Amino acid sequence: MKFKILDLLLPRETKFYDYLIEQVDILIEGCHIFKNFALKIESLTDDEIKKVIADIKSCEKKGDIVEVKIINELDKTFITPFDREDIHSMAINLDRSLDILNSMCNKIDIYSIKRLPKNVNNFAELALEISARLRILLT
Description:
Elements: H1 5-9, H2 15-40, H3 46-76, H4 84-110, H5 118-138
Helix pairs in contact: 2-3, 2-4, 2-5, 3-4
């Protein structure tokens, strides 16, 4: 690797990788909870369903906190490890994924759904696999 004087004078902030990994880890946690929920919904009691929905909501709130942290750090950082618009877009879309999981769980609760189509199970598995691969890409 070639030494560049510009890298010495203007170091890049690497904290964004840590923040994005933190947000992906929250997404993985939410996807894992949702996958288990989708597989077992028929055998869960109403109280257990409420607990799962609360767990997903907790993941969504944690994701919101990390998203705000990323955006605030972008505003304070002069040189980012990669394009700031890309970092912003990743943070927004990772949070949007958590928002979708939360919204799906809320609708399941509102409409008192006790049986999910097989497509939802496939979606849950795919979402978990994609988030796990995204985690690998960021490390």
